[in-house]
UniProtKB/TrEMBL annotation:
The chain crosses the membrane at residues 31-49, 69-89, 96-114, 134-153, 231-248, 285-303, 310-331, 351-370. Signal peptide: none annotated. This is Uncharacterized protein. The lineage of its organism: Bacteria, Bacillati, Actinomycetota, Actinomycetes, Streptosporangiales. Keywords: Membrane, Transmembrane, Transmembrane helix. The keyword Transmembrane applies.
C-alpha cells in the first residue's frame, strides 16, 4: 500500500498535466510512458479475468460477482479512467486514436448491462458467441485498436516502442481469439464426459439441460460444450486470427514480428494452463497452431510484391492452421490423456476440413485490405514495411 507521501508526490507530478487540450498535442515522454503502462496494467487485469472466466463458466453456474468478473471489472475501471484522461487532456493520442478508444469503451460499457439483462431473461447464455458477448468483444476491439494507434503515432522509435507495440497487439489477438475458447474448453470437457469425468457442477448441468428441454445426456453435453458449427473455429482462426498477425507484421516491421506476437499470446495461455487445470478447473486445448501461422506470415513478407505475398501467404497460412489443427489432435491428444489420466482426448476442436475453401479467400481479402490501407492511407506504416522488407 502506497504511503500518503508517495501519493502526494504522484499528485504533485500529475497535476500540471491536468489541462484541457485537443487530441494530438505534444506529450512529454514521461507522461506518455505512464499513460501506456496504465493501459498495459488494465489489459493485463482484463486478460487475467477473461482467462479464468471461460474455465469458471464450464464449472459453475453464472454469478455476476464471480472473481473473474471482478478482475475484469478492475481492468475496466482503469480503462475508463485512462479514456477520460486522454479525452480531457488530449495527451498521448491523435484524433483517430481517441475516437477509437472512446467508441470502444462506450460500446463495452453499454454491452455490460445488456449482457446482464440477457442473462436475466435467457438464463445461462451458454455460448461465447452470443450477441451480447460479441458486443463486449467488439467494444474491446475498438478500444485496443485505439491504444495501438495512439502508441504507434506517439512513441519515439526504439526498442521500448517496439516491445510495447508488440504487447498491445498480443492483447488485440487475445481479444479476437477469445470466443474460440468456448470450443477449446468444450472439446476437452466433452472428452472428459465420455471418460466418465464431469467438470461441471450438477446445478450447472441441470440448469443447462432444463434450458435445452432434455435430460443430462451425451447430446445435451455436446450441445453445451460445442454449441456452434465445427467450421466456425478454423475459418475464424484463419480470417480473423491470422489477419491480426498480418497487421502486426506490418505495424511492427521486421522479420519475426508476427511469430513473436502469436507466441506471446500462446505463451500466456500455456502459462495459465497448469495454473487452472491443476487447481481443479476445467482444462482447454491450446491454439499452438497460431505460432506456425505467424511464422508463415513472416516468411511471406520476405516477398517484395504485395499481391504475391498476400496470395501465397494466405495459402500457406491457411494450410498451417488446418495442418496445425490436425497435428494438435494427433500429438496433443495423448499429452492431455497423460496429464489428466484419461483416454481418447482430442488436442483441438473438431475440424471441418472443407471449410478451408472459405477460410483461404477470406484471409486473402483481409490481407489485401491491410496492404492497401498500409500503402494508401498510412505513409508511416508503409515506410516501416519498405525498410523492414528485404
Amino acid at each position: 500500500m502506497k504511503s500518503p507521501a508517495t501519493l502526494k508526490t504522484a499528485a504533485q507530478w500529475a497535476l500540471p498535466y491536468w489541462t484541457r487540450g485537443p487530441a494530438g498535442r505534444a506529450t512529454p515522454p514521461d507522461l506518455l510512458r505512464v499513460l501506456y503502462v496504465g493501459w498495459l496494467v488494465a489489459f493485463s487485469l482484463k486478460v487475467l479475468g477473461s482467462a479464468w472466466d471461460v474455465s469458471w463458466h464450464f464449472m459453475w453456474l453464472r454469478d455476476d460477482l464471480a472473481p473473474p468478473h471482478l478482475l475484469n471489472s478492475a481492468g475496466t475501471a482503469i480503462v475508463l479512467a485512462l479514456t477520460i484522461i486522454h479525452g480531457y487532456t488530449g495527451y498521448g493520442v491523435d484524433r483517430a486514436a481517441l475516437r477509437l478508444i472512446q467508441w470502444g469503451t462506450g460500446v463495452f460499457l453499454v454491452a455490460v448491462p445488456l449482457d446482464l439483462i440477457n442473462h436475466r431473461v435467457n438464463g445461462l447464455d451458454i455460448t461465447s458467441w452470443s450477441p451480447s458477448h460479441l458486443a463486449l468483444y467488439i467494444g474491446t476491439f475498438f478500444m485496443i485498436a485505439g491504444v495501438v494507434r495512439g502508441w504507434f503515432v506517439s512513441a519515439s522509435p526504439g526498442r521500448t516502442r517496439t516491445v510495447m507495440l508488440g504487447a498491445f497487439l498480443a492483447f488485440f489477438l487475445e481479444n479476437v481469439h477469445f470466443p474460440e475458447q468456448h470450443q477449446e474448453y468444450g472439446i476437452l470437457s466433452l472428452g472428459a464426459w465420455n471418460n466418465g469425468v464431469v467438470y461441471a457442477e450438477k446445478i450447472l448441468l441441470d440448469f443447462a439441460a432444463d434450458q435445452m428441454g432434455r435430460p443430462v445426456d451425451h447430446i445435451m453435453v455436446t450441445n453445451f460444450t460445442l454449441p456452434v458449427p465445427d467450421l466456425l473455429y478454423p475459418v475464424y482462426a484463419v480470417v480473423v486470427g491470422v489477419g491480426v498477425l498480418v497487421a502486426a507484421r506490418m505495424m511492427i516491421g521486421g522479420f519475426g514480428a508476427a511469430t513473436l506476437v502469436a507466441a506471446a499470446y500462446v505463451g500466456v495461455r500455456v502459462l495459465f494452463w497448469p495454473m487452472l487445470t491443476f487447481t481443479g478447473f476445467p482444462p482447454s486445448a491450446l491454439p499452438l497452431f497460431l505460432v506456425a501461422a505467424g511464422l508463415c506470415v513472416d516468411l511471406a513478407f520476405l516477398l517484395r510484391h504485395p499481391l504475391v505475398r498476400a496470395v501465397l501467404g494466405s495459402v500457406v497460412a491457411t494450410a498451417a492452421v488446418y495442418g496445425g489443427l490436425v497435428a494438435q489432435s494427433t500429438l496433443m491428444g495423448p499429452v492431455y490423456d497423460l496429464l489428466m489420466g484419461q483416454e481418447d482426448l482430442l488436442g483441438a476442436p473438431p475440424l471441418a476440413t472443407a471449410s478451408a475453401v472459405w477460410a483461404g479467400p477470406g484471409l486473402l481479402v483481409v490481407w489485401l485490405a491491410c496492404e492497401w490501407y498500409a500503402t494508401r492511407r498510412q505513409p508511416t506504416a508503409a515506410r516501416v514495411i519498405a525498410t523492414a522488407t528485404p
